[in-house]
């Protein structure tokens, strides 16, 4: 089986190309660091696999996601490397190409975004460039699919020709380095392939390579050789660091390649991106524009599109679907028990969650737009100063925005943050971002208690989550390891008009998880919760007030009394809500045995006042990350201690804040 | 002079990056900003926030403190 590995700088369109060349679909966006894991897909011609790797600038990783690519190349032997380069940024992209050529597998260059380069006045003589570098080059436009067939054909050819022989390319690094490389190569055991590549990577300061070589060679000898070489280089090249010296040598090679092959035909002029940035990155307007954008998001989700659609879906589910199912069950003579499970358990539980699908898809559509347009990197920049003040950097805002959709991918997106402490803090705080599952709880409550100000009330909860995260970041960064210096650097991609195809695809990919969860997890959960409500110590079919669910809810309701929602129904919903936050809605639907949302809304007005409802929403926002999020915190931090910490601090903070809001609200005369 | 002392949009040549945060310097190098490259300062965010620099059509945002440690010279 052929294995083709996709490599290239961040945000050069590797994943777009992956989606074109394989039968699978992966998540794309216009910012550096979208792909954080390796993804494998079957090539369209079924002759091999394509492996999509996180973007890297060089093979020495700085952040966790970049390490994935380096480790892949160290541990596996792909049949060939498909190197994707951004045609308008050839020079810096080719630094990686040189390292890939040295690695020793056949390389084919995909010259992506050739249209953008042409528009910017770069005239690239592809044939001449291919001759200069000595590898096949195929111009492509991954977004439209232009050139993809030729690329696939060329790549097949290259890996067929290669056979088993490796053909590592040699570039001359000057006498001092060449001597050091020779010595290192001699130290390495014979069975290691691409010894020269390993030696060079080591001299560049590549940590994973160092760790690998330490298994074969005495670490002291490696260190001595490294130090000696660095000293010699510094003497010769007035104080240059070894890695910088290597980079300079490569830059010279690249200059030689590009000299005749690339012509700039047009003077640089003000681009559209610059004109947009003049507004969204404006000194005074930057932050207001961002806030206005967020407000618009909630207006769209609630007032303009999401809610009307949800209401329509609700009347369909609870009217037509429920009635037809009911009469169907009657006609086949189903037992009363089965009828109760399906109508009061499944339809109330799953249906209660499904009605929020339109709002959640609307939110995902907007998040996809932010990702695909190029606005993401700008938001990170606009927010950096604020986040620096609390011990984070602007990039931490990216996981947080993704967390608005779902906390799980949000926490994974923290991999692009370079500093370990900032990454840990971001992982711990992303669960405070109000995810789409919590949205279903708010939708239920604001629809009931705050009909006039739905968008505003929900926005206040999102802002509360962000504010609490910032305050806690400040607090934690005092107490956690604080010696690490904060850093921030982000590349700003040119804006792109998102393609409708990409947007709808990526919205669907994000949203289908929610729908699937409703069909599996929430379905099962609803049945179990319904059973708990149907049975009690005295047997089956007991009144809800004597059920097991009531016993469980009563355990914690006294603790919740000071927060304003000391009824057992709220207690039971909170406990089951740990599984997934939407389950809060399902549980309430089942408890209040409400056939329609209007009925459920009517029922909860008997148990909550508006202030109590707000306090309850605040508690739901903050109290614990859901089960799936706890799982991903565990796998990303690889620490049981931090996982427990994330659950416990959230409970404490939720309790304190809901308490303050409820008590202050009472004092101010709200009820 | 440092990059921060240059006027917005004017091209300058990078002379020295030694005092820039080590990881930021690495990443700048990855993006093509090294000694000898021609760059320009483009924008600055308010309240001492980050600023953006441009190199060969590529825009990068870095903190003002780091921009202030880039020594440059007029071209």
Automatic annotation (TrEMBL), chain A:
Its main location: membrane. InterPro entries: Fe2_transport_prot-B, Fe2_transport_prot_B_C, FeoB_Cyto, FeoB_GTPase, G_FEOB_dom, Gate_dom, P-loop_NTPase. PROSITE patterns: G_FEOB (PS51711). Coiled coil: none annotated. Residues 1-161 form the FeoB-type G domain. It is found in: Cell membrane. Keywords: Cell membrane, GTP-binding, Ion transport, Iron, Iron transport, Membrane, Nucleotide-binding, Transmembrane, Transmembrane helix, Transport. Pfam families: FeoB_C (PF07664), FeoB_Cyto (PF17910), FeoB_N (PF02421), Gate (PF07670). The chain crosses the membrane at residues 284-305, 350-370, 390-412, 424-450, 456-477, 518-537, 613-633, 642-662. It is a multi-pass membrane protein. CDD domains: FeoB (cd01879). NCBIfam families: feoB. Belongs to the TRAFAC class TrmE-Era-EngA-EngB-Septin-like GTPase superfamily. FeoB GTPase (TC 9.A.8) family. PANTHER family: FE(2+) TRANSPORTER FEOB, FERROUS IRON TRANSPORT PROTEIN B. Probable transporter of a GTP-driven Fe(2+) uptake system. This is Ferrous iron transport protein B. It comes from Paenibacillus terricola. The lineage of its organism: Bacteria, Bacillati, Bacillota, Bacilli, Bacillales.
UniProtKB/TrEMBL annotation, chain B:
Coiled coil: none annotated. Residues 1-74 form the Ferrous iron transporter FeoA-like domain. The keyword Heme does not apply. Keywords: Iron. This is Ferrous iron transport protein A. The lineage of its organism: Bacteria, Bacillati, Bacillota, Bacilli, Bacillales.
